[in-house]
Amino acid sequence: ASGKQRRQRALPEATRTASETVKNRSKKSSKKKNPSSSSKLPPNLSNNNLLPAPNWQVPYPTIRERNAVMFRNDLMADVHFVVGPPGGTQRLPGHKYVLAVGSSVFHAMFYGELAEDKAEICIPDVDPAAFLAMLKYIYCDEMDLAAVTVLATLYAAKKYIVPHLARPCVNLLETCLSAKNACVLLSQSCPFEEPGLTQRCWEVIDAQAELALKSEGFCDIDFQTLEKIVVFEAALSWAEVECQRQDLALSAENKRRVLGKALYLTCIPTMALDDFANSAAQSGVLTLNETNDIFLWYTAAKKPKLQSPQGCAPTGANQWRYRGRCDSIQFAVDKRVFIAGFGLHGSSYGSAEYSAKIELKRQGVALGQNLSKCFSDGSSNTFPVWFEYPVQTKQDTFYTACVIPDGNELSYFGQEGMTEVQCGKITVGTGVRGGGGGKFLDHFKFSFGLYFK
């Protein structure tokens, strides 16, 4: 099966059920608005009838119904579209006035300053079924969303700026999102610039990582999405399929070649030592020197520098909305230090102002706190929020750092947090907590770091 066919299969049966629900709701809504409407054309007027009987308009009391008669109808058509890739095209009639009323892009094409008077327009990058779904919405004010074409319909709605069709497409995808299709939806939804859908995909992948990374659709994601997910075993599975796509032998050397720099993003040091020894170390993808350095990193007091990431690195794809929630992390240090403040990740959509409350606790008792206004410049760098006075901490004692940022902007965040971080001569060990301090998590998108001296 082709990659496109596998992507379509990755959408679960629930998507089909939901698409039928959307379709039925749309039909019910149309019936309520127009009790006398009928989706059937009268016997004297078919979609391709150029010579209709006189007074064909009579059975249709509303402008919406008369407009709907023109859907896929050559009658009075003044433009035709050849839609789809070569070998799979479909020729569809259109009416410039109706299309221009429904889409600003069509208005510019037909009535703008640079309008071209073409009788036939080729659109090779849009699926014919998706284009028809968009035309049906423009002509009939009805949404007919199908499971296998909902992404293509979203693409068409975005391309021709039909936002009231795009929104239901996104809602349908969010409703049907599951671990089985989260990776492929993440890969395909990024070009649509729908941060809400992208965020939901990340949340599902984060919450059900094992199911998501073992799903059939995972191997069909693009390289850019692979770089963001970066889990070793899943990356190897993707590399095997990518070798097949490039007609390469399934050797360790070729897997490493297709993985490229993504290999160094797999956060191998976050794996347990046993897991590393039984999987990554024996995969053949790592060199002997790399394997030796990683074993030393696990066991030696003086740790070698690794190419894999050893901290939390924010990216444009990793976005988080604060919503006034408490983020916290438990930590201990092997030397006495003074905690001067925290570093927060800020807005991923330009500069923004935040109000943040920070606290440092020991056994539930606040040792220091501060509430202050702070400003983020829109970069992925953290910005500091300081205590009024630095708070002293003892060695080998657990403390809890808490922050409650208040802001509505999407923000960067870190992920794949390390259980131990070396900072100069000081070692910081962490236990990661999330969302107000419930259970411990292996990986948590904590939004802040520590400033100490």
From TrEMBL:
It is found in: Cytoplasm. SUPFAM superfamilies: POZ domain. The keyword Protein transport does not apply. The keyword Cytoplasm applies. Residues 1-52 are annotated as: Disordered. Residues 77-147 form the BTB domain. One of its GO terms (biological process) is dendrite morphogenesis. Coiled coil: none annotated. Residues 24-34 have a biased composition (Basic residues). Residues 35-52 have a biased composition (Low complexity). GO terms for cellular component: cytosol. It comes from the Eukaryota. Keywords: Cytoplasm. This is BTB domain-containing protein. The lineage of its organism: Eukaryota, Metazoa, Chordata, Craniata, Vertebrata.
